[in-house]
Amino acid sequence: MRQDRCTPIYLSADIRALERIAAARAGAAPLMQLAGLAAAEYARELLGEYGRKVLVLAGPGNNGGDAFEVATHLMRWFYRVELVFAGDEHQLSEDALAALKKWRACGGSTYAAPPSALRPDLVVDGLFGIGLTRALEGGYADLIDGINRLPCPKLALDIASGINADTGAVMGTALRATHTITFIALKPGLLTLDGPDHCTSSGGEIRIADLGLDVRALQDAKGATTAAELLRQALPPRPLNFHKGNAGSVGVLGGASGMVGAAMLAGRAALKLGAGKVFLGLLTDHPPYLDCGQPELMLRTPRELLEAGMVSAFAAGPGMGTAKSAEQLLREVLDANVPLVLDADALNLIAASKMLQARLPKRGAPSVLTPHPAEAARLLGCATAAVQADRVKAANELAQRYQAVAVLKGNGSVIASPDGGWLINTSGNPGMASAGMGDVLTGMIAALLAQGADARTAAAAAVWLHGAAGDRLAAAGNGPIGLNASEVIDSARVLLNKTVC
């Protein structure tokens, strides 16, 4: 996938609609044949020299038909192909049955289970595609578990078998593919929750085969990936005749006793992402006189910060605590007529207060919420497991309920806006699951808001940049293990300037 341009994402129901449109076109080649050829060509790339051994897994549906097509092409290209068919040919669709007959016509055989002595150089997974709706168990689960133990690369057709295409959830068990070729367009399950671990394990990639369909012309997508282009939308190049007042100012409200560092991280991130001025309103009873590591930050009392009218964007929540005094300050910042980012304890205070929940959607300025799954569950009044069961749905519910841009953090963070549009982030790595990362992201979003970006673009661009900065550090050997939030701030600044200047 490209990291410079946003790529559309479609739910499985939308993909089915696109398939019906394609099938109705007179003279068009069946999509199964096109998919099989595209996947076979990708398999050939992965295999390299002719004569290598391939194990193809074909399931009971059209994903199995794709697998028959792949097997036929690879055999014709002089690879040694064994095919396991885990289905009933009498229940195959017309196209899938035709593909099976084609395989047999070129001399291919089918097995009910992989030959015990087989040591393939590649496994092609065509067991189950995007239509899977039930947990895999019994013989299917045993087959997948056995395949996962094989040390060779594994290529999934459309999506790794056992992964829900719309949610990324594991349906009982799932195959761990090193590479995936997905047909027509991306699906959410490839990019969020457990999907990335099963569709691109061991550092593989997702390749899109559009099968000749111009999906954007046929049907608009509500979803898309994040990408570098969002940064360019958020921050156009600065003119030479520029001063710090043009870059806006950020006010960070947080830093109760023992948690001052959270507010400082948010403030430092806002400063290094271009905000002209950054003020910290610290809640601790014994605030420092300055941030010795970043003396450019201006420290104020929360009351001074709220009453001076000195900021063009607020960030509330990092290290804020949940005391009554913090709740009162949050009420006042909700009334401020400037863009606002809400994170951490600010979200917990809102979840615990019906009054704050009612006030938030009525704000006169844009709001951005940045919950992790447990915070999202509190805001929605449900279990964390329910949020994780369908992350796109949960993010959209947050955006609608609170009339705010919602960033549901996690593997494949989902950014949803009240108009129904959503994005899934494709940057970042496990090293970013460390203290202070959320505070940094909050400051980054606030900085882009202060510089004039709209809430959706600011949130999505900052989420992508945050992850990409972590990836840049990991690639240089500074992670993922031991990666820390302060490093990400400086890496993000470098990447931001490379992207927009």
What does this protein structure show overall?
- With 501 residues, this protein is α/β, with parallel strands linked by helices.
- It has two domains: 8-222, Rossmann fold (3-Layer(aba) Sandwich); 229-500, Ribokinase (UDP-N-acetylmuramoyl-L-alanine:D-glutamate ligase, 3-Layer(aba) Sandwich).
- The protein has helices spanning 12-23, 31-47, 62-76, 94-105, 138-148, 195-199, 215-218, 229-234, 260-272, 302-307, 324-335, 345-351, 354-359, 373-380, 384-389, 391-402, 437-450, 455-475, 485-500; strands at 8-9, 53-58, 80-85, 110-111, 122-126, 154-157, 179-183, 206-209, 223-225, 249-254, 277-282, 298-300, 313-316, 340-342, 367-369, 405-408, 414-416, 422-424.
- The protein has an eleven-stranded mixed sheet, sandwiched between helices. A seven-stranded parallel sheet has the order 4-3-2-5-6-7-8, covered by helices on one side.
- Helix 3 (62-76) packs parallel to helix 4 (94-105) and helix 9 (260-272) packs parallel to helix 19.
Compile the SSE list and pairings:
Blueprint lengths: L7 E2 L2 H12 L7 H17 L5 E6 L3 H15 L3 E6 L8 H12 L4 E2 L10 E5 L11 H11 L5 E4 L21 E5 L11 H5 L6 E4 L5 H4 L4 E3 L3 H6 L14 E6 L5 H13 L4 E6 L15 E3 L1 H6 L5 E4 L7 H12 L4 E3 L2 H7 L2 H6 L7 E3 L3 H8 L3 H6 L1 H12 L2 E4 L5 E3 L5 E3 L12 H14 L4 H21 L9 H16 L1
Parallel strand pairs: 2-3, 2-5, 3-4, 5-6, 6-7, 7-8, 9-18, 10-11, 10-13, 11-12, 13-14, 14-15, 15-16
Antiparallel strand pairs: 1-9, 16-17, 17-18
Helix pairs in contact: 2-3, 3-4, 9-17, 9-19, 12-14, 17-18, 17-19, 18-19
Nutshell version of this structure?
With 501 residues, the protein is an alpha/beta fold. The protein has helices spanning 12-23, 31-47, 62-76, 94-105, 138-148, 195-199, 215-218, 229-234, 260-272, 302-307, 324-335, 345-351, 354-359, 373-380, 384-389, 391-402, 437-450, 455-475, 485-500; strands spanning 8-9, 53-58, 80-85, 110-111, 122-126, 154-157, 179-183, 206-209, 223-225, 249-254, 277-282, 298-300, 313-316, 340-342, 367-369, 405-408, 414-416, 422-424. The mean pLDDT is 95.
